[in-house]
Amino acid sequence: MVSRITILSYGTRGDVQPLLVLAGALVAAGFEVTLGADTEFESGVVARGARFPPLRMDLRTFLASDRGHFGEPGGRPTTRSRRWYGRCSTIAGSRRVMPMR
C-alpha cells in the first residue's frame, strides 16, 4: 500500500518553493503526494510527479483587496490564515481536510 501525503500552501513563491522540493523528494521516496497551491504553481508541482489540486483563492488578489489588509478588526495574520484555510477546505482528491482551530 502506498503512503499518501497532502501538502497545502497558500503562499507566494518563497512559501511554496521549499514545498515543491519536499514534494519531489517524497515522490522519489515512493509516496503519493498531493500539493495544493495557487494555480501559478501547477507546472512545478506536476513536474515533480505530485498531484495538483488548485486552491480556490488567489492569495495575491486577496492580499491586494480591502479584505486582505491585516490592519482591520479581526485582522491578525493568524486569524486571517485560519479563516482563509477554512474557505479552502474543498481540495480535489482529499477525503477530508481538518480545519485549523
What secondary-structure arrangement, pairings included, does this model have?
Layout: E1 4-8, H1 13-28, E2 32-36, H2 42-47, H3 59-64, H4 77-87
Parallel strand pairs: 1-2
Keywords:
101 residues, 4 helices, Rossmann fold
Question: What does this 3D model show about the protein?
Answer:
Helix content is 39%, strand content 10%. It has a two-stranded parallel sheet. The chain contains four helices and two strands; from the N terminus they run βαβααα. It has helices spanning 13-28, 42-47, 59-64, 77-87, and strands at residues 4-8, 32-36. It has a single domain, classed as Glycogen Phosphorylase B (Rossmann fold). It is elongated. The chain is α+β, with helices and mostly antiparallel strands and 101 residues long.
| Beta strands, count | 2
Query: What fraction, in percent, of the residue positions are helical?
Result: 25-40%
Give the overall form.
Answer: elongated
Q: Kindly report the oligomeric state of this protein.
A: single chain
CATH superfamily: Glycogen Phosphorylase B
**CATH topology type:** Rossmann fold
The figure for the number of domains is: 1
What is the string of helix and strand elements?
EHEHHH
Determine the number of helices (DSSP H or I, runs of at least 4 residues).
4
What strand order characterises the main sheet?
A: 1-2
Structural class per helix/strand content?
alpha+beta
> Architecture, according to CATH?
3-Layer(aba) Sandwich
Question: How would you summarize what this structure contains?
Answer:
This protein has 101 residues and is an alpha+beta fold. Helix content is 39%, strand content 10%.
